[in-house]
Amino acid sequence: MPRDTITPADEKKIIAAIQEAESNTSGEIRVHVESNCEGDVLDRATEVFADLHMHLTKQRNGVLFYVALEDHQFAVLGDAGINAIVPDHFWEDITAEVIRNFKQKKYAEGLAKGILMAGQQLKAHFPYDTKGDINELSDDISFGD
């Protein structure tokens, strides 16, 4: 079960990273953790992205960190607004950093580092709007089976 691996302390660390990253950007970051991934990891991440209504942000600037713990699958997925402007290697760099930590069973640390990396890129392209930026998506981690 994902909640056996991601402890309450881990959850706090991950949510703190989301909040720190989002404090500098209008972008939105979510984390979804489940045990297994049926089929292709990017296809499953795309399903979760839609299920979490991440495509409904005003600037199409949502980022999903998807983890299937037992299947050792990970994907980071950005919405159309982000994909149009980030450097080609951007998602690969984040993925490499997260997986490097996951291999050492440092799940919260890996996710936190990846989230902060995404936040830096979001800050550059989607700066925080002091005149009414709202948190469009929950910062809480969503868990599957």
Report on this model:
This is TPM domain-containing protein. InterPro entries: TPM_dom. It comes from Pontibacter diazotrophicus. The chain has about 140 residues and is of the alpha/beta class. It has one domain: Diaminopimelate Epimerase, Chain A, domain 1, CATH 3.10.310. The protein is about 45% helix and about 15% strand. The protein is built from six helices and four strands. A four-stranded mixed β-sheet has the order 3-2-1-4, sandwiched between helices. Strand 1 (about 30-35), helix 3 (about 40-50) and strand 2 (about 60-70) form a beta-alpha-beta unit. The longest helix has 19 residues, at about 105-125. The radius of gyration is 14 Å and the shape is globular. The model has no long low-confidence stretch (mean pLDDT about 90).
